[in-house]
């Protein structure tokens, strides 16, 4: 490892330390209102609020010391991004108690995809919920209610989108061939385009779009999908699953470029989550992690510790020692420690196109 590489890792660990131990360190004095759309990667409690399905402890054990509806031992990437600009963590739109939504709302719900279009809680449904939220806010503001988001704030808000993983994973789960999954990608991307243009038509001008992570590196997939060593890449991930993720990401990157040219006065930031997460898995020991392809919370033991009959939070599941640095929390979602590294790299701007800092959106 050369001197430059050592300095890069030192800088990353300093950023991670600041995120984990003292998250409010930004100079952002007027953080943007944030509306988030997505799946379990950014669901801060929508599934529990919307369907009442329990997400049991030890989920939430690290930061919150209780389950908050996040499929993680602590904070998600979106939580770290919010804390980096001095704004409160986003409350799920479907949660009727405990929030005025003055800093925005989170429409993301675990299990969500872009298709089918009219199934709860697809991206299209989430956008429709946003439109209702916006229209209802306008009605209440006009009626004299205070502390609500007005039109100008909706126009100046940041709209974050993190979806697509379940579309790809769900297609493979239905035993579709690689070729058939690839053929679905343009339809998935079209739904994301429709969502962005609909929000744009409502005045939204600032978008933050995450691509999807290395699907073939998830312990869940490695445990459930029959494979041989020839199906794996040098780091033990399923090559075909990652190839599909990369094709989707290439299309999403092109879509963001296309929309920047097609619509006026818009900022669309594309974030390469895949590159960050794959680097974390490929170089896990350099980041202080062990067993990057094994879940911390699950059942079945090595090599993946994932069994769909006893997943994290269910009876018979086992959880690793809290002192261990593990990448995967439950076989699908990342640990808080891993999310902190991902967030720190996002904040570096090395993985965003254009290279925009997150506090760029502070007013």
From TrEMBL:
Q: Which GO molecular function annotations are given, in alphabetical order?
A: hydrolase activity
Can you tell which superkingdom this protein's organism belongs to? Eukaryota
Signal peptide limits: 1-26
Keywords linked to the UniProt accession: Glycoprotein, Hydrolase, Signal
What Gene3D superfamilies does this protein map onto?
Answer: SGNH hydrolase
Fetch the Pfam families from UniProt.
Lipase_GDSL
Which InterPro entries does the entry link to?
A: GDSL, SGNH_hydro_sf, SGNH_plant_lipase-like
> Where, if anywhere, are coiled coils annotated?
none
- What family is this protein classified in? Belongs to the 'GDSL' lipolytic enzyme family.
PANTHER family reported in the protein's UniProt record = OS01G0331100 PROTEIN, ZINC FINGER FYVE DOMAIN CONTAINING PROTEIN
- What is the protein name for this chain? GDSL esterase/lipase
What organism does the UniProt record list as the source? Forsythia ovata
């Amino acid at each position: 490892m050369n001197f430059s590489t050592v300095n890069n890792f030192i800088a990353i660990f300093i950023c991670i330390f600041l995120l984990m131990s003292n998250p409010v360190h930004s100079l952002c004095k007027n953080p943007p209102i944030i509306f988030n759309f997505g799946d379990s990667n950014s669901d801060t409690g929508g599934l529990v609020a919307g369907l009442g399905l329990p997400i049991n402890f030890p989920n939430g054990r690290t930061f919150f010391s209780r389950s908050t509806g996040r499929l993680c031992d602590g904070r998600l990437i979106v939580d770290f991004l919010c804390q980096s600009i001095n704004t409160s963590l986003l409350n799920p739109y479907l949660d009727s108690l405990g929030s005025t939504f003055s800093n925005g709302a989170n429409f993301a719900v675990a299990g969500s995809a872009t298709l089918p279009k009219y199934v709860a809680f697809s991206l299209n449904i989430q956008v429709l919920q946003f439109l209702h939220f916006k229209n209802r806010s306008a009605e209440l503001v006009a009626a004299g209610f205070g502390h609500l988001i007005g039109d100008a704030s909706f126009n100046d808000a940041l709209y974050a989108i993190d979806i697509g993983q379940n579309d790809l994973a769900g297609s493979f789960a239905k035993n579709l061939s690689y070729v058939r999954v690839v053929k679905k990608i343009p339809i998935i991307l079209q739904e994301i385009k429709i969502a962005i243009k609909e929000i744009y038509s409502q005045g939204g001008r600032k978008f933050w779009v995450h691509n999807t992570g290395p699907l073939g590196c998830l312990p869940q997939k490695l445990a459930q999908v029959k494979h041989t060593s020839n199906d794996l890449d040098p780091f033990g991930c399923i090559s075909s699953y990652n190839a599909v993720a990369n094709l989707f990401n290439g299309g999403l990157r092109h879509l963001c470029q296309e929309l920047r040219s097609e619509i006026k006065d818009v900022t669309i930031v594309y974030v390469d989550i895949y590159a960050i997460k794959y680097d974390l898995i490929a170089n896990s020991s350099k980041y202080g992690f062990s067993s990057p392809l094994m879940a911390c919370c699950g059942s079945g033991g090595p090599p993946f510790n994932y069994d769909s009959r006893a997943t994290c939070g269910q009876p018979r599941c086992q959880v690793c020692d809290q002192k261990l640095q593990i990448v995967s929390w439950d076989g699908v979602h990342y640990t808080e420690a891993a999310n902190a590294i991902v967030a720190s790299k996002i904040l570096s701007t090395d993985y965003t196109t254009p290279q925009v800092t997150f506090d760029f959106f502070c007013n």
